[in-house]
Amino acid sequence: MAFFGGKKKKTQESIGTASIITPGTYIKGEIKCEGNILINGDFEGIISSNSEVVVGKSGRVKGEINSQKLLVSGEFRGSFTGEIVDIMPYGKVYGDVHVNNIIIEPNAVFEGETKIVSGRVHQNTTNGYTNVDVVQPKKLGY
């Protein structure tokens, strides 16, 4: 069994996996990834994902999230930019969201400002960093 070897190629399997922050874990900093992130612990900082960020029932996030989708069952405080935010029953969001769609389930809490943007959320990678921007559709001149 070898511990060292050549570079592994990215496969759909490795991209399809999720990063998990478990209960009792506190992380402060920046996360950038291509796959899903499940947060059941505490996180403070910036999260950039090409996929979905899930704040579980025991999860608490403070900071900025840029991803395709944000699903909140726990608590999120900060700003989110992406396609959709879904606040599940008893989930709490305090802050600003810039999205195409927002879903607030019964018994969910939302305090903040929502900007519904037309257009698609586009992700670009510069210098190895993933940024999520809202791309406005072209206006037709009649």
Task: Write a short abstract of this structure.
The protein is mainly beta. The chain is 3% helix and 59% strand. It has one domain.
Look at the structure and give the mean pLDDT: 83
Instruction: Please describe the biggest sheet, giving its number of strands, its sense, and whether it closes into a barrel.
Output: 6 strands, parallel
Radius of gyration: 17 Å
Cross-sheet strand order for the largest sheet: 1-3-5-7-9-11
Q: How many helical stretches?
A: 1
| Overall structural domain count | 1
List low-confidence stretches: 137-142
**Strand percent estimate:** over 45%
End-to-end C-alpha gap: 68 Å
Structural class: mainly beta
Order of helices and strands: HEEEEEEEEEEEEEE
Q: What share of residues is helical?
A: under 10%
Can you count the beta strands? 14
Which overall shape is indicated by the principal axes computed on the Cα atoms? globular
